[in-house]
Amino acid sequence: MQGDQTDFFKRIKSLLPNGWFGDNSPVLDALLWGMSQALAWCFSLYLYAKAQTRILTATDGWLDLIAYDFFGTSLQRGNLNDSSFRNRIQINIFRERGTRNAISKILYDLTGRYPTITEPQLPSDVGYYGGMAGYGVAGCYGSLSMPYQAFVTVYRSPSVGLPYVAGYGTSTGGYSQASRADYASISQIGLTDADLIAAVESVKPFGTTIWMQIKS
Fold this sequence. Notes:
Elements: H1 5-14, H2 26-51, H3 60-71, H4 82-93, H5 100-111, E1 116-118, H6 123-126, E2 149-155, H7 193-203, E3 209-215
Parallel strand pairs: 2-3
Antiparallel strand pairs: 1-2
Helix pairs in contact: 1-2, 3-4, 5-7
């Protein structure tokens, strides 16, 4: 194979002048095999270094450095393997930003559910007299005194809870006795509120205010 020890051994030996050494030269071959091993290692290091210069071929901690270069500490690997983390980097590099749809899309990617977005100055959101609104039926109050603002209701992704941990009212859980009950946090079963807020902050238009409500 090109670049391995055998390949370098043949290349070096082919450069030696004819007639200088006999057909059987174990001492010379031993020296050449040693040199070939070192050159093969250098070549493999070159190939590895070359691969780290492109997102499509980078691996290991170099992918983490690429993510840090583009996103700082906002994009973490977590438990993702190289392939999944690379895909996540590419998605975020080319992600739509600065639009209403960007907010909707990133929240859908995180939760699997589209948010409800209401802009107080947008008639199609708040309704208007004669259409798309009705007291107690549809629409909401709009306001011209709230420019560049929006209300976003985020819906968490459905969760199956924590395995092997009992819930309230079940016979397998109880205080001060052996049971499967335990104190738990919502952060253990999905995205935290901070994760969702940070996601919106990363794509919202500059100079706007987003009011968020997070529902399970």
